[in-house]
Write a structure and sequence with these properties.
The complex is a heterodimer of chains A (314) and B (352). Chain A has a five-stranded mixed sheet with strand order 2-1-3-4-8. Chain A folds into three domains: 1-106 and 151-175, no CATH class; 109-146; 177-308, no CATH class. Chain A is of the alpha/beta class and 314 residues long. In chain A, helix 7 (188-201) packs across helix 9 and helix 9 packs parallel to helix 11. Chain A starts with a helix and ends with a helix. The longest helix of chain A is centred in the C-terminal third of the chain and has 16 residues, at 270-285. Chain A is built from twelve helices and eight strands. In chain A, strand 3, helix 3 and strand 4 form a beta-alpha-beta unit. With 352 residues, chain B is an alpha/beta fold. Helices cover 32% and strands 19% of the residues of chain B. Chain B is built from eleven helices and eleven strands. In chain B, the strands form two sheets. Chain B has a seven-stranded mixed sheet with strand order 1-9-8-7-6-2-3, sandwiched between helices. In chain B, strands 5-4-11-10 form a four-stranded antiparallel sheet, with no helix packed on it. In chain B, strand 8 (161-165) and strand 9 form a beta hairpin. In chain B, helix 1 (13-25) packs across helix 4. The chains are: A alpha/beta (314), B alpha/beta (352). Bound molecules: iron/sulfur cluster (SF4) (3 copies). Residues 202-208, 263-266, 268, 270 of chain A line the site of one iron/sulfur cluster (SF4).
């Protein structure tokens, strides 16, 4: 049985038995290479659920503050967001039924679209290849090469928390050096110039924030008008201030799902800033967000021997 | 809007560089450049070689050169009861090269908003100072559906000079239609001469339009969709659709016809500062939040409905113009695949 059928079966069962009010999963998108979040509330609607390599959204973004009982389809990274949201009391463990999917990586549709620059009529996976077709042309991509950067080095492709698993666990990826590891070695000036040129592109649409399952504050500091922390002049400095604020608010909470960079229409490498912060948290506190349901988040736990080098400057 | 063609003729691909050389050397040229692997933007260009001709459309519409993301409308120096007013810098003459027909149509769509009975000074001024060189398309992009709105993918009356590529890819040169005095002036100063087209220019253009139009597969028929505002305003469809919406501002910020703004002041510690007009988005919760705490569009359902009906109905009711040009940007960039073309089909389905 394929993953799609398995998800449908689990979801239909949950809805039929009245165990949940809704199952949040993926449905077919309006165009090739696209899927869309699907909220199934009946057994019939559950029949429309799908799973494939375009199911990129982190659906945990729909969890904070829910009052109903919900089934949710999660990949490895998404499951970490569920764990973290439970830690942060945004949703109760009893409220969620987690349908885990071992993930082989999500296709970066923009990369494919930019490579073909034409109307795409069909796309399908054939073994290790992605086949894209249009009006009288067809092109094959090595699937691995058109995955999102975060997927290529993903170390947590199997869900860390689930009530049912749709599919067999996959071998963990060897990962290789992450973008941050490569980037950290560059001289400070080069890193600063790169970050500023990325930030200059930001149009402050706030898609990064809104796509992030951990950005659920009812009042975001960027929207506050008393005091007004930030204007809307969208210059590189203000944009960087926004991103630094966001990254710091996510310290010890970012689950590295890549939802922010994926949502960004300007292809801004937000993963670098967040990845660097995640790496620092790991090195300082030995903690990675959302990996262990038993272990409290780094900034929720105080130990007298917590490192404080960043405070004392030593 | 009818096309006024003063003259028309053919120029070679090499002539394009000559056409743009003058404005480029004077620092007046703005053109599409691939600034990141997946991002093409209209940016100031000094070297015409930096221009990318190999693009479907820019990520952000060129609208920002007529209606900037953040425009300083006044400044002041000193604090106290009588600060000294400082006028913002005057906009400079600009040649905007490479504007696609959907984005050219968007100018017509915005004209009654900014140029109506109470003309907007800033828009007016920039319109006057900008010479627009339109560039017809050679391929429907992955998200394009301009033809659904009756837009020709190769020509548009809004351009001062309209370039229609003669053979894809544009190696065969361009059919150039001179459509205004500004266009005539740009051509004259460049010294580029137009050669007579073998075929009557209008016929040639029609033929290219027909060839390309036939290749679009995103076919929607929006006829009558504007009635949804009356008939489906309270329909549960909107709530259902908005379940997915993240409430980000992508669809509004990337839309060539969205035009909402907010006015904010920025003050430095010494009391001096400036007043800016900045893009705003009706998808943001605070867009309609009132000082009393009441919000007439309290959830994403009302906000998303507003945006979509503005495109599909209100603009047309108010100005007799379609609010969407089928550029496909919102469809391409919406993180959750909310697709205005699908919404058109859904609404029409619900009304039959
Ligand atoms: S999604 Fe990208 S463009 Fe939008 S606010 Fe975030 S970084 Fe800026
Ligand atoms: S781009 Fe999509 S998710 Fe963002 S506000 Fe628009 S419809 Fe909603
Ligand atoms: S509504 Fe979408 S497709 Fe239509 S003009 Fe705006 S961005 Fe383009």
């Amino acid at each position: 049985m394929g993953t799609t059928e398995k998800i449908r079966e689990i979801a239909a069962g949950l809805l039929r038995d009245g165990k949940v009010d809704v199952v949040i999963g993926y449905g077919p998108g309006t165009l090739p290479l696209r899927s869309t979040p699907l909220f199934a509330r009946t057994v019939e609607e559950a029949e429309r659920l799908i799973w494939d390599a375009t199911c990129g959204n982190n659906l945990a973004v729909y969890l904070p503050g829910r009052k109903d009982r919900v089934g949710i389809v999660v990949k490895g990274c998404d499951s970490r967001a569920v764990v973290q949201l439970i830690h942060e009391n945004q949703i109760a463990r009893e409220q969620v039924f987690v349908i885990g999917v071992p993930c082989a990586g999500i296709i970066d549709r923009r990369q494919v679209e930019a490579a073909v620059e034409r109307e795409i009529r069909a796309a399908r996976e054939e073994g290790a290849e992605l086949v894209v077709e249009g009006d009288g042309w067809s092109r094959r991509f090595n699937r691995e090469e058109v995955l999102y950067g975060a997927c290529r080095t993903c170390r947590h492709n199997n869900p860390v928390l689930y009530d049912a698993l749709a599919g067999e666990p996959l071998p963990p990826r060897d990962g290789g050096p992450t973008l941050v590891e490569i980037w950290e070695k560059k001289p400070a000036g080069e890193r600063r110039d790169f970050i500023l040129s990325e930030m200059a592109r930001c149009i402050r649409c706030y898609a990064c924030r809104n796509a992030c399952p951990m950005c659920y504050c009812t009042e975001c500091f960027v929207d506050s008008s008393t005091p007004r922390w930030l204007g809307r002049a969208t210059d590189a400095g203000e944009n960087l201030f926004f991103q630094i604020g966001r990254v710091l608010h996510l310290a010890g909470r970012c689950v590295a799902c890549g939802a922010c960079s994926r949502a960004c229409p300007m292809d801004i490498k937000l993963g670098l800033l967040l990845g660097k912060m995640n790496k620092d948290v790991l090195e300082l506190f030995g903690h990675e967000a959302g990996l262990n349901p038993e272990e409290p988040p780094a900034l929720n736990a105080f130990r007298p021997d917590d490192p404080e080098t960043f405070l004392l400057g030593k | 809007m009818s096309v006024t063609t003063l003259t028309a003729g053919v120029m070679s691909r090499e002539d394009l560089a000559r056409l743009l050389a003058g404005p480029a050397s004077e620092g007046q040229l703005t053109a599409p450049v691939r600034v990141a692997p997946e991002v093409v933007l209209f940016v100031p260009v000094r070297d015409p070689d930096a221009i990318t001709l190999d693009y479907v459309n820019s990520t952000v519409p060129p609208k920002e050169y007529l209606f900037p993301r953040a425009e300083k409308i006044l400044g002041w120096r000193g604090s106290g009861p009588q600060p000294e007013l400082v006028l913002p810098p005057e906009p400079q003459p600009l040649v905007l090269f490479g504007v696609r027909p959907c984005d050219l149509r968007a100018i017509t769509v915005l004209e009654p908003v900014f140029g109506g009975p109470y003309p907007d000074l800033y828009w007016r001024r920039r319109r006057e100072l900008t010479t627009i060189v339109g560039l017809g398309c050679t391929e429907p992009g992955p998200y394009c559906f301009c033809v659904a709105w009756g837009i020709s993918p190769v020509a548009a009356p809004e351009a001062d000079l309209m370039l229609t590529p003669l053979e894809p890819p544009a190696a065969g040169g361009y059919l150039v239609a001179v459509q205004s005095a500004k266009g005539e002036e740009l051509l004259r100063r460049s010294g580029v001469g137009l050669e007579a087209a073998g075929t009557e220019p209008g016929v040639l253009r029609e033929r290219r339009a027909a060839e390309l139009t036939a290749r679009f597969r995103r076919l929607i028929d929006p006829t009558g969709v504007e009635r949804a505002a009356e008939r489906l305003f309270e329909h549960p469809y909107w709530r259902e659709l908005a379940r997915r919406c993240l409430g980000c501002g992508i669809c509004t910020f990337l839309c060539p016809t969205c035009h909402c703004f907010n006015v904010i002041d920025r003050t430095a510690p010494d009391g001096s500062g400036g007043r800016y007009r900045c893009w705003d988005s009706c998808l943001f919760e605070r867009f309609t939040l009132q000082a009393s705490g009441h919000n007439p569009r309290p959830t994403r359902a009302e906000r998303l409905r507003n945006r979509l009906l503005h495109k599909l109905s209100y603009h047309r009711t108010r100005y007799g113009l379609e609010g969407c040009t089928g550029c496909g940007r919102c469809v391409a960039a919406c993180p959750v695949n909310i697709d205005i073309a699908e919404v058109v089909a859904d609404l029409k389905g619900l009304m039959t």
